[in-house]
Amino acid sequence: MRSDAGQSCRAFGHDLRFQKTHVELLLGLLRGDDAEDAEEVLADTLGYLAQSYEAGASMAQDIKVMRQVARVEEAIIGRTEENLGVNELAKLAGCSPFHLCRIFRACTGQSLRQFRLQQRLGTAVGRLGEGEKNLAALACDMGSNSHSHMTDAFRVALGMTPSEVRDELRRSDLHVLKYRLRDAWRNPQ
């Protein structure tokens, strides 16, 4: 086990599709879908993550840099609805805004803006999985300027609108998810 447990999490390169899969898996378990399908989905997902980790494991990071990035990630995740500026985040990390942008992208593969948007959309996917009905309120809660702005972000990230995501999550089935994931991981886009 590494002394910086957060380091291994960042090496997996989570994306919004992965977060949506996570929500689908949880919903399937809560509905009482077939336990064997759940085990297979989980095993396939862990196998995929292990391959992703092995591909990115060679990127050795300075522990100070990793801590700086972790502080910024925690601030963004903990205050998803706020638009924390790069200057405020740089103060938190104890470095210049330019240096923060550079190290953040090097460690996460994303800009600060991309990371913030992914966290907001991930939170929105979770709420959609819980059955959120008011998409305009959800957009406002997630820091979007409008419902259409959030819809555009969903289309870019997932190829679906928020209402389509909510409907798919409502209908999701672990058996179908298992085969959809296997096909997607064998044939990445």
From TrEMBL:
Keyword Signal included in the entry's annotation: no
Residue ranges of domain HTH araC/xylS-type in the record: 70-168
Source species, domain of life: Bacteria
Keywords of this entry: DNA-binding, Transcription, Transcription regulation
SUPFAM superfamilies referenced in this protein's UniProt entry, alphabetically: Homeodomain-like
Pfam family, one: HTH_18
Name by which UniProt lists this protein: Helix-turn-helix transcriptional regulator
Annotated source species: Dyella humi
